[in-house]
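Q: Hi! First time doing this. I have a protein sequence and I read that you can turn it into a structure. Is that right? Here it is:
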Amino acid sequence: MIRVRFAPSPTGALHIGGARTALFNWLFARHHNGKFILRIEDTDRERSTLEANQAIFHGLEWLGLDWDEGPNVGGPYGPYYQTERLELHQKYAYQLVNEGKAYFCFCTPEELARKRKEAEARKEAPRYDNSCRKLSSEEIKKKIASGMPKVVRFLLPPIGDTVVEDLIRGKVVFKNEVLDDFVILKSDGFPTYNFACVVDDHLMEITHVIRGDDHLSNTPRQILLYQAFGWQLPKFAHIPMILGKDKARLSKRHGATSVIEYSTIGYLPEAMINYIAKLGWGCGNEEVFSREDLITKFSLDGVSKNPAVFDVEKLNWLNGQYIRKILPERLFDLCEPLLIEAYGTHDLSYMKKVVTAFHDRLVLIPDIVPLSAYFFQDEFEYDPKGVEKYFKAENAKAILQTLKDRLDTLEPFVKEKIEPVFKGLAEEMKVKLGIIIHPCRLALTGRSESPPMYDVVEILGKEKVKIRLEQALSRI
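A: Yes, that's right. Below is the predicted 3D structure, encoded as structure tokens:
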């Protein structure tokens, strides 16, 4: 049984990098009919918050990434909050101490800081000097009896290599001599990241650890812990980092980084899932994948070793593709509250017609507000370039006057009847249809671009069309 986990620290909202890690794990599990586990690594008590915890849940739920085991779901390998597993972590840390594979360290933070400075002065890499390794059992007992603060350090093999057989990066070799006796249990009794995740991954029977490559440097320490316990290693896969278009690491200056921010901006969750999946993974030249396609086609073989570049323009294009695919009813449900907030309550059928007119033109859901303003506001400015090009053109006044007269008597006022009025006038004047449409569009909307002209005329209705044509004629 394939078992993977997403193990965020609840110190902030779910960001794009975390969302991609969750997605890759989720897709891997679903592709192999395995289990996707959510584990909250909340041992950083100073920075972990309930709000961040809820934000992570909210982000995953918005993306549709359901977990088989974890908070709010339960499961046979819980608890799924690391702070609730404290006794387990302490038990295994002391097991290593009793086996001579870890030891108590009583060095104070001040001593460690001084030693780091001394090492830097000698132009050496700052690392623990193993001084507490040499303490006798009697010295240790005395220090413990006196109540001295202590940590537990892992006894690192001093020589040799630790090899990471990575499913994406291949073989990566680390020299043990560049590592040091790292802390596995802090003085407050809480485990460090490297220790807790090894214990929890083993006890939760995680088969594959799929995570960002910023964790690659942690992996040799974790492998050494697995070996010290005699536990079977999971398979490791480190996915590439995400960069902005300037090739700097993705951050807030590149735009929103919280998944929920993208929801607020107006992206669809299915577009985000598609786009995030493509950050570092590919399947031929395909760009648009349904959720089912992703589950079927995802594999770690398709994950690149190279950093992925976050391109908002490409995300916008993809979001537009998905907006065109959704049902009109869903689009209206997304747009209606935005329109009411901007323009107040209007007739429901009228608002639905407006939203439908822009179904193929939206890139982000909130775009509906500025794009549709002329359907809800009678006062607007004419596009200056449009005035020069269309209102000052030859026959512009005659065109608008004729349209006003003919549309004013038209019954029923529907686009099937409206279209022949425009085409008929073009034929009479022996001009291209655009010569008729462009000045009318400017008169009715104030803009040089809009949804199809016959739709605009029908939605606005006879009375508004008459008034706006008269206003435009007074300007020519």
